[in-house]
Structures are given as C-alpha cells and as structure tokens.
Design brief:
Radius of gyration: 25 Å
Largest sheet: none
Structural class: mainly alpha
Distance between the termini: 70 Å
Strand content: under 5%
Number of helices: 3
Length: about 140
C-alpha cells in the first residue's frame, strides 16, 4: 500500500517510474519476439503484471485525492507526461500482444504438425510389420 503521506506530485512521479519500467519491458519483449524468443518474452510479461498492479495502486490513491485536492500547474504538467507514457505503453502493448498471438498460433501449428507426423510414423510402423508385438521384423 502506498503511504498517504506522499504528495500528488510524488505519486505522479512514481507512476511515471512504473510506466517507464513497463515501457522498457515492452520494448525488450518486442525485441525478443522479433528474434522469435517467445519463452523469455512471456517471462517479462509476468513481470509486467506486477508493474500494472503497482500502477493501479497509485491510481487508487490519486483517485481518492481527486475530490479533496486541486492540482497545481506543476502537477498538471507532470500529468501530461503520465498521459504520454500511458499512450506509449498502450501502443507497445498492442504490438507485443499481436506478436504473442502470432507466436502462439505458430506454436499450435508446430504442435499439430509434430502430432500428425508422430501418428503417421506410428501407423506406418504398425502397418509395415516392423513391430515387436507381431514377433517379426
């Protein structure tokens, strides 16, 4: 839980830090997926979940303050930076999500091809007479 002693400005700066970390992870995921390294990219995706939870926590604190505080010009300027980072993160997340879906579909294709080849090989072995259960080679 975030301390209620933090100012709105400090909360907004913390939100920018979390968003910067999220953006860095998303850029790294994008790079990994461009090399078809989906396993490592998915590990980063799990790290992103904790960052999103932290962002939600900051948002709750800011929401609670919304009714009792008036933002200063400095806080409004920082808020603009927050919105820029949110847009950047959203765009990167959409790109990464599309790449992850592509990788998932490719994995399904590879699995089905492997499964079909395995069944075909098993069928050919059984029908060609090369079976120990039939007691002849």
């Amino acid at each position: 839980m975030i301390s209620s002693k933090q100012t709105t400005k400090q909360l907004l700066q913390k939100k920018i830090q979390y968003l910067d970390s999220l953006i860095a992870n998303l850029k790294r995921e994008d790079e990994l997926l461009s090399y078809r390294n989906a396993d490592t990219a998915v590990k980063l995706e799990f790290k992103n979940e904790s960052l999103v939870r932290k962002l939600e926590e900051v948002d709750r604190e800011l929401w609670e303050r919304q009714e009792i505080e008036v933002y200063s010009a400095d806080e409004i300027a920082i808020s603009e930076t927050v919105f820029e980072r949110l847009d950047a993160a959203r765009i990167l997340q959409q790109k990464v999500q599309e790449l992850l879906v592509f990788e998932m579909n490719e994995s399904k294709k590879e699995y089905w091809e492997f499964s079909i080849k395995r069944k075909l090989k098993f069928h050919l072995i059984q029908t060609s007479g090369l079976s120990w259960t039939k007691n002849y080679c």
